[in-house]
Design brief:
197 residues
Length: 197
């Protein structure tokens, strides 16, 4: 069994640049943007692009998965720098950005699916795992409820992102995310009416 060798630093930089440019290009210009244009904007030759991504579908798939990984990996990074509650709220903003990018790449992703690809195969599991990490940290710190289902938070975030998809509604998205955060805070027993919640 052979294992893939890790990329050299320059090859890794080229690959990362190609993915960043591809996300912008597919989001802005749609699936018909030329691979030559992507390679040129990334500052590499078309041969370099094909070495990393032998087909258009491979590039679309990798670009989407790169955005997903960036979002999901940021959960642990945020927890290193911020208290759990602030980390979760910041991650929610990043989720909204991810959803906007995903919508922008919609035509390219549909073309990938039509060719037999499945870019979303692991999306839900990865997103749920990231949310779980953030919720557990907040529950351990006592700043977030312990009885919240990560899948419910994911559905709530998705709904907010879909309802406020228009860029002019970003302020409303922020307010709705703040409301969601309010619902994730532990309840103060002293504020509950006698006899029930």
């Amino acid at each position: 069994m052979t294992t893939a060798r890790p990329l050299r630093a320059d090859a890794r930089r080229n690959r990362d640049r190609l993915l960043d440019v591809a996300v912008r290009a597919f989001s802005g210009d749609g699936p018909d943007v030329t691979l030559e244009a992507i390679a040129k904007e990334a500052g590499v030759g078309i041969g370099t692009l094909y070495r990393h991504f032998p087909t258009r579908e491979a590039l679309i798939d990798a670009a989407y998965r790169s955005e997903l990984a960036r979002l999901c990996d940021s959960a642990a990074e945020l927890l290193r720098d911020l208290p759990p509650q602030a980390a979760l709220r910041t991650w929610m903003d990043r989720f909204a950005d991810y959803m906007a990018t995903k919508r922008g790449m919609g035509d390219a992703l549909r073309a990938l699916i039509a060719s037999g690809g499945d870019p979303f195969a692991q999306s839900r599991d990865r997103l749920t795992a990231a949310i779980t990490t953030l919720l557990r940290a907040g529950a351990a710190a006592g700043t977030l409820r312990q009885d919240v289902e990560p899948g419910d938070v994911l559905v709530s975030l998705s709904g907010i992102s879909l309802a406020t998809a228009d860029p002019e509604r970003r302020d409303q998205a922020g307010r709705l995310l703040d409301l969601l955060m309010d619902g994730l805070r532990p309840r103060d027993p002293s504020s509950q009416p006698a006899g029930g919640p």
